[in-house]
């Protein structure tokens, strides 16, 4: 099981790789709350809507001395920002598409985002579907089985999460980290795919050695 270590702590002796992750979904489904719970272990009951996109970063330590650093783009869900989304999911290695279990329309919107990613994003992108607000079970309007079957048919990771109670938030990102393709990690360590917004993982140790510093 991947462990949740504070980002500021020293990483293990193994490799550190960097991946671009984008969050997509309708407004008010809890995308920002999910990422804030993951990155800062904080939940704010009354968060303002994201404007455009917000950027955060956090690392996941895996069992095999590999550290996966996520560079996370949390996109705004309002319709007026939809045209900006391709700028954020372009060259993304992974995506979390979020819906609200109390709002069936938000699942339909999530399916539209999944379709768009499958058509226009990198064909190797890892996509996770997150049914957020699982703490509101009494108001549930999307059956777990309905979303789970859709995710299985579409080849998606699936979790029901709660940013408020911290249910499955860490597990969601841990499982994504485990699915980052190791053949691409190996390619990057041989000098390919350098740069931030790339399809393969960026070997930060390799970059530091090449530049003579751990920047």
From TrEMBL:
SMART domains: RAB (SM00175), RAN (SM00176), RAS (SM00173), RHO (SM00174). GO terms for biological process: protein transport; vesicle-mediated transport. Its main location: membrane. The keyword S-adenosyl-L-methionine does not apply. Keywords: Cell membrane, GTP-binding, Lipoprotein, Membrane, Nucleotide-binding, Prenylation, Protein transport, Transport. It is found in: Cell membrane. GO terms for cellular component: endosome; plasma membrane. The keyword Nucleotide-binding applies. It is a lipid-anchor. InterPro entries: P-loop_NTPase, Small_GTP-bd, Small_GTPase. It comes from Phycomyces blakesleeanus (strain ATCC 8743b / DSM 1359 / FGSC 10004 / NBRC 33097 / NRRL 1555). PANTHER family: PTHR47978. Pfam families: Ras (PF00071). GO terms for molecular function: GTP binding; GTPase activity. Signal peptide: none annotated. This is Uncharacterized protein.
């Amino acid at each position: 099981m991947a462990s949740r270590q504070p980002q500021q702590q020293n990483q293990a002796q193994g490799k550190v790789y960097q991946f671009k992750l984008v969050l997509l979904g309708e407004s008010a489904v809890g995308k920002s709350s999910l990422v804030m719970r993951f990155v800062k272990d904080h939940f704010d009951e009354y968060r303002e809507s994201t404007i455009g996109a917000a950027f955060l970063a956090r690392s996941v330590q895996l069992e095999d001395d590999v550290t996966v650093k996520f560079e996370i783009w949390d996109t705004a869900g309002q319709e007026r920002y939809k045209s900006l989304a391709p700028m954020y999911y372009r060259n993304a290695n992974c995506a979390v598409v979020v819906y609200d279990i109390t709002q069936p329309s938000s699942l339909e919107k999530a399916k539209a985002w999944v379709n768009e990613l499958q058509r226009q994003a990198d064909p190797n992108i890892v996509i996770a579907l997150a049914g957020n607000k699982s703490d509101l079970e009494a108001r549930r309007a999307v059956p777990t089985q309905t979303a789970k079957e859709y995710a299985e048919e579409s080849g998606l990771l699936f979790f029901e999460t709660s940013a408020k109670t911290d249910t499955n938030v860490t597990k969601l990102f841990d499982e994504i980290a485990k699915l980052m393709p190791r053949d691409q990690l190996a390619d990057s360590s041989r000098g390919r795919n350098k740069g931030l917004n790339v399809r393969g993982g960026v070997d930060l140790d390799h970059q530091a050695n090449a530049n003579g510093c751990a920047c």
